[in-house]
Amino acid sequence: MDDLAGFLRRVKFEGRAGGVGRREVGQEGRAAATLRPQPPAMADAPPEVLELNVGGVHYATTRETLLLEPDSLPAAALNDPDHPRDARGRIFFDRDGVLFRYVLDYLRDGGLVLPECFREHKRLAREAKHYRLLGLENAVREADPRPPNRERGCITVGYRGSFAFGRDGLADVKFRKLSRILVCGKVTLCRDVFGETLNESRDPDHGLADRYTSRFFLKHSFIEQAFDMLQEQGFKLTASCGSGTAGGAAELKPGVDSEENRWNHYNEFVFVRE
């Protein structure tokens, strides 16, 4: 009995000792775990994808893109905690939101690519200057196909014509016939736009540099060609007017086709280049 009691006491004592050892090992493991460096929480990490609000138009980009030009305004706004932000925390620029797409493309690619129909070079150059992007400003000025010091002014284009109606009493208009396209305005502007297609025989040059005329006309009768030439030189249509008269058969001259002169009309278009 004494031997059995002694054996039980030894087993109980060793069990306690083993428990203490396990507890000490567990505490050491937890201490080591607390000392191991932990990755930062997502809420504390700086966001790599940023949202911008430019004049109400929203964009998404990365921090790396905005910092590609360290001296630019977008880079300065990113590092400035006092820069204006909207209600959702987006960096706010009170500028043209549509044109900013070209600013952001320049920051992404380091170059400028504009659509063929782009006509706002001066406005985009102004935006580039505001954002302190000298490279973009120079690229916009080089991409502008219009001369920087071209003359401003107004040109009026008018034409007389007639509508040809269908035969056998049909009332549908088949085509129009233009007899002459008239050009009025400053002589230097008219020559700049129409060049060799301008007929000056009715109003020869008298040596006056700032002379105006209302007697020029074009050597062709294609009104769309005249419009294309005006558009290529930066003119925009600002006003137009038209009138028409219905003529009878008794009013026609001998040998004139009555079908082509049943409806006569005169139209004028005012183009301005600023």
Automatic annotation (TrEMBL):
One of its GO terms (biological process) is protein homooligomerization. It holds the Pfam family BTB_2. One of its GO terms (cellular component) is plasma membrane. Keywords: Cell membrane, Cell projection, Membrane, Phosphoprotein. InterPro entries: H1_KCTD8_12_16 (IPR057093), SKP1/BTB/POZ_sf (IPR011333), T1-type_BTB (IPR003131). The keyword Membrane applies. Residues 51-134 form the Potassium channel tetramerisation-type BTB domain. CDD domains: H1_KCTD12-like. Residues 153-273 form the KCTD8/12/16 H1 domain. PANTHER family: GH08630P (PTHR14499:SF136), POTASSIUM CHANNEL TETRAMERIZATION DOMAIN-CONTAINING (PTHR14499). This is BTB/POZ domain-containing protein KCTD16. It comes from Danaus plexippus plexippus.
